[in-house]
Amino acid sequence: MNKKTPTIFDLLFGFVILLAFVLRIVFASQWYLSEKEATIALNITANPTTMYQVWTGFLFRFISESEFFARIIPVLFGTGFVMLPLLLRKRFGDTITLILGVALAFDPGLIAISKQAGPEIMAISAFFSILIFLYARKWTGVGIALAIGLLSGPSFWIGVFSISICLSFSGLLSGMKGVDDDPQTVSHFVRQTLKDVNWKSILSSFGLSLIIGGTLLLAQTKTLAGIANGLIGFFQRENPGFYAIPLSAALIGFVVAYISVLVFGLFGVRRFPSSWRGLIWLWVLITFIFVSLFPNRQLADYIWIVIPLYIPAAKYLGELKIFSSENRYLIAGSAFSLSMLLLFALFSSMRYIKEISEGFADSGVTLYLYTAIAALFVFFMILLIIGWGWSRHLMRDIALFIFVGGVLFLYLVPSMKSAGFDAQPKQFMWFQTGYFEDADLFRKTILQLDQNRQEKNTPLHIQVQNIQSDVLLWELRNYSVSMKNAEYLFDNSDPDVIVTSMDESPQVAQNRMGQDMIFSRTVAWSLMTNQDWRQWAFYQKPIYNNMQGIVWASLFEGSLEINDDVIDEIDPTAN
Predict the structure, then answer these.
(1) Both ends of the chain: CA-CA distance in Å?
(2) Are 434 and 522 in contact (CB under 8 A)?
(3) For residues 532 and 526, what is the distance between their CA atoms, to the nearest angstrom?
(4) Can you give the pLDDT at residue 574?
(5) In angstroms, how far apart are the furthest CA atoms of the chain?
(6) What is the separation of C-alpha 61 from the centre of its chain, rounded to a whole number of angstroms?
(7) How many CB atoms lie within 10 A of CB 420?
(8) pLDDT per residue as tens digits for the range 434-469
(9) pLDDT tens-digit series, residues 524-559
(10) What does DSSP assign to residue 4?
């Protein structure tokens, strides 16, 4: 039996996949669900309409209802998406394939949505899988990906409509001189793939995926409504369950996070034949129009714009000859030393400016930005002078090395923040909906009250008064909860715990003690000034709207002070 010996490429790409999985699963169980995630999670067992909800419902029913199992399927799909460039290996070669894998593994947007409970990453993975399987003529994969895509929610239709319009325009241009003679043209690609389609394989795998893939075709036919719901939801003008990021805010975040993709994509499209270059930019334009009109704009929608630019960007990087000199060790050592000097001087200057500018309210972002630009310019000029002293050839190589390394550094910063390093969910670059600010304190408070109450044989009864928050209901999913929507509090049932808003009737305080908490914190986009926008663009620090409330407990139930030892005894995973 012959065993294939793993190559260096196999080992490197395997490490990239492992790294992608780690970046997506780290902290996935420690972050509390946002308002959007909680809305989806609460509807998983009640009314599943997407494949994500059906699959996650199985995990909830047979294992545990937790943040980890609400996000594990997006984590797996996000990791699998990084493997797609392997299908293009014969077309692009090892170098470009590896660059594509690394880019998708560290993509800040893909990391972010792969750590969020929801079907968006499934739609993105399914759609681009269809395109790649079509190119590779793997018809079974096309059928499976098509079934998953149709059942993955509204995001899938952004890709469908965008690529359909792009290919339609390309078809209109197929009669132009010289287009049909180029084997790399879009018209040639469409004609060849449609001509050789194995429809039997596609339809059989499509039908089998609908049944086995978690759609419950015979047991629960309503689940198949995900196909229609996705199309209807795409055109739906209002959906109160989701919060839309303003277009201007998302564009700022898009440019800041994807500066490297935009820079190298711009250079890279020049390497493609004119028809492919036109298709890529037409894709970006059409998708941007759809995203702008889509009422529930969020991070997943903007991923459709940036992913097509990865191929020309990877192609351009793969063709760069950064180390063209014979003495590569001299270039690498010099470039590395100068890079470290540049970064050290940059951060030292910023720290110094910060110390002398404290107390000036309007100086934060502006001085940071101007200092960074000045330090970058000065030391880049020093770099060029030193390089010129050695040789023009060496200067070009070192300058190119610094440029590529600096832009990629800007790309890795939001990637690490999206993974959870040096950032909290409230500082997410792609903040979408409200989150539970005091979720940890709330959990410990409820556990403490459940431990100290007198009637141990009955479940803890919690009454929520005039508060609409899915994250709050998610935290109370294991308790007996009654919802009250009235102007005044009528405490006839005498619940163990009452949760009210801050402006609730003070009569609750007569026989209970209270503890205030922030149940939902959302970005106050409409209140942000010019300075606030710059703070958010560079440091993800906007101003917030808080929905505050009070947790009331009877005096005889015991103190609301939290005893961590008791909580660890009740639930070791509570912290």
Answers:
(1) 51
(2) yes
(3) 11
(4) 42
(5) 87
(6) 26
(7) 20
(8) 788 888 888 888 888 887 776 667 778 888 887 878
(9) 877 877 777 767 666 667 788 888 888 888 755 545
(10) P
Q: What is the DSSP letter of 87?
A: G
Coil vs helix vs strand at 226? helix
Tokens of 199: 């429809």
> According to the model, what pLDDT value does residue 139 have?
87
**Rounded to whole angstroms, how far apart are CA atoms 436 and 522?**
10
Strand boundaries in 224-347, DSSP class E = none
**φ/ψ bin of 419: left (φ > 0), alpha (ψ from -120 to 50), beta (otherwise):** alpha
pLDDT confidence bin for 2, thresholds 50/70/90? low
Nearest CA to 214 among 77, 79, 28? 77
Cα–Cα distance measured from residue 393 to residue 183, given in angstroms and rounded to the nearest whole number: 37
Query: If you average pLDDT over every residue of the chain, what do you get?
Result: 75
- For residue 184, the tally of other CB atoms under 10 A from its CB is 11
Give the predicted TM-score (pTM) of the model: 0.81
Residue 121, strand partner residues: none
What pLDDT shows up at residue 28? Answer: 85
Q: How are beta strands 461-465 and 480-484 bridged, if at all?
A: parallel
Q: What is the pLDDT of residue 368?
A: 54
How far apart, in whole angstroms, are the C-alpha atoms of residue 129 and residue 132? Answer: 5
Mean pLDDT confidence for 2-12: 79
CA distance 512 to 508: 6
Q: How far is CA 23 from CA 17, 192, 418, 517, in A?
A: 10, 39, 9, 31
Distance of alpha carbon 421 from alpha carbon 412, whole angstroms = 11
DSSP letters along 9-70, please?
A: HHHHHHHHHHHHHHHHHTTTTTSPPBHHHHHHHHTTTT---SHHHHHHHHHHHHT--SHHHH
Report residue 129 CA to chain centroid gap: 18
Angle (CA) 522 442 243, round 5°: 20
Region label for 466, one of left (φ > 0), alpha (ψ between -120 and 50) or beta (otherwise): left
Instruction: Identify the bridge partners of residue 547 per DSSP, sorted by sequence position.
Output: 520
Instruction: With a cut of 60, say whether residue 239 has pLDDT above it.
Output: no
Residues 6+ apart with CB under 8 A from 236: 154, 295, 296
Alpha helices (H) in 107-243, listed in sequence order: 108-114, 120-136, 139-150, 155-172, 186-195, 199-210, 225-235
Residue with tokens 């199309």: 231
Can you say how many angstroms the Cα of residue 31 is from the centroid of all Cα atoms in its chain? 14
Q: Does 85 score more than 90 pLDDT? A: yes
